[in-house]
Amino acid sequence: MANILENTVNVITPEVIQKHWQGHRDLSRRILDQFPEKELFEFSIGGMRTYAQLALEMIDLAAGGAKGLATGDWSIPGGPKHNNTDHGITTKAELLEQWDKVTADIDQYFPQIAPTRWQEKEAAFGQYENTGIGTLLYLIDNEIHHRGQGYVYLRALGIEPTPFWARY
User: Strand, helix or coil at 65?
Assistant: First the structure.
């Protein structure tokens, strides 16, 4: 029986999906940067988390996700921050710095993802069983979802956000 990967044609290459993810991350960073400092950490609507807390979740999942896809180690570097009110990040500059660090981590780990990892099933973060590609798509979807909350927050604050289609 032939190896299934020998007969597989990529619909999208790993390099293209990495660029796609980084395009979303670039837009999410611009939305994050549009927040006034105080509102970033204090403003919410209807009991939702602040955008700083949402950004920390995006940071956690991207950092742990890139590393997990490449190595099978799904721990979040430095431990999860998004559910911890004492995460040590108290300014927008610190949050943006952490965002940029994770962006570089993605660029480091992504080329290390073995082709077979995309179809392997694994429990990401010890609890979300899916294929590697399914997990990556979830990470992107989750970021888009939270960025959408950021759009609502910015508009509620009277700030016109960067257009959703401006990903590069």
Answer: helix
In 5-91, which ranges are continuous DSSP H helix?
A: 14-34, 37-42, 51-71
pTM over 0.90, yes/no:
no
The pair of three-digit structure tokens given for residue 167, joined into one six-digit string: 């990903």
Domains of the chain, by residue range, sit at 12-156
Query: Where is 132: in which H helix or E strand?
Result: helix 132-156
Q: Which of 12, 31, 39, 8 is nearest to 164 (CA)?
A: 31
Can you tell me the distance from the alpha carbon of 48 to that of 159, in angstroms, rounded to the nearest whole number? 19
Architecture label for domain 12-156: Up-down Bundle (1.20)
The confidence score (pLDDT) of residue 1 equals 46
Taking 70 as the pLDDT cut, the residues of the chain under it are 1-10, 77-87, 167-168
